[in-house]
Design brief:
This is ABC transporter ATP-binding protein. The protein is of the alpha/beta class. The chain has eleven helices and ten strands. The chain binds adenosine-5'-triphosphate.
Length: 257
């Protein structure tokens, strides 16, 4: 589904990603872990289209996307939940999710707001789809409430719903558990588990190694911009190179994150 082939990107002469290669199969949850500065966010941004690779290719469902701007990648099926992303205040939960769905319509969100008659049917379909996405993340009962003031865990789930509304072929999650309390983390893990059961293809970039090992079929480990291991959770967590990379940062991130 998603193929990243020998992708490199440097900043100021230092490689943040170097010859990164990985393939995510349809329906797979792929974890990306690595110590601080390993290049996880860079990889996420390269796939999302916020930064461009200097070399290498990125393909989604067999089509190259690495030269497309971010919004065009979204249309091709790259769904994103940013690290620390905010919900739109002053809008209901349902409206927040409908914005995600409009990225995929011909009309777009501005035209939809004007609601010419020809688009009313599309609008109804989008609303139904947005409600379905809210239901998938367990927030349908709150659909008409304002999004501001939502607890952080629910904000994350709302962002997942917004990304799902764009009908992604692959869902990129950048540190979705960051800042969440233990109970919220558990709920998020359950949500990702449900998405996996539904067959959603997910690229999960996460500091929380425990969360990733419990959810991902395979894990790719980055260190200093390079892939140092790729395999099942038990394979990578017992890999000496991985253990060394985590211990080498001066703190036992693998144990406490
Ligand atoms: N926009 C940028 N400008 C300059 N250097 C950057 C930029 N983005 C990333 N880097 C550098 O690239 C390297 C990889 O950073 P990146 O943020 O991708 O790592 P990470 O694994 O996400 O780290 P963390 O876990 O701390 O978020 C780091 O050395 C970082 O300083």
């Amino acid at each position: 589904m998603l193929t990243i082939d020998r992708v490199s990107r440097s900043f100021g002469g230092v490689y943040a990603n170097r010859d990164v290669t990985l393939t995510v199969a349809e329906g797979e949850v792929r974890g990306i872990i690595g110590p601080n500065g390993a290049g996880k966010s860079t990889l996420f941004n390269l796939v999302a289209g916020h930064i461009r690779a200097e070399s290498g290719t990125i393909s989604l469902a067999g089509r190259r996307i690495d030269r497309l701007p971010a919004h065009a990648r979204a249309r091709q099926g790259v769904g994103i939940v940013f690290q620390g992303a905010r919900v739109f205040p002053g809008m209901s939960l349902l409206a927040n999710v409908m914005v995600g769905a409009h990225a995929h319509t011909r009309a777009g969100v501005v035209a939809a707001a004007l609601r010419p008659p020809s688009q009313r049917r599309e609008e109804r379909a989008i609303r139904a789809q947005a409600e379905d996405c809210l239901s998938r993340v367990g927030l349908l009962d709150w659909a008409s409430r304002p999004a501001e003031g939502l607890p952080l865990g629910q904000q994350r789930r709302l962002q997942v719903a917004r990304a799902l509304a764009g009908l992604p072929r692959v869902l990129l999650l950048d540190e979705p558990a960051s800042g969440l309390r233990a109970a919220e983390r558990q709920e998020l893990a359950e949500l990702i588990g449900e998405l996996r059961r539904d067959g959603t293809t997910i690229l999960l970039v996460e500091h929380d190694v425990g969360l990733v090992t419990s959810l991902a079929e395979r894990i790719t480990v980055l260190d200093l911009g390079r892939v140092i291991a790729d395999g099942t959770p038990s394979e990578v967590t017992s890999d000496p190179a991985v253990i060394k990379a985590y211990l080498g940062t001066g703190a036992s991130h693998a144990a406490d994150r």
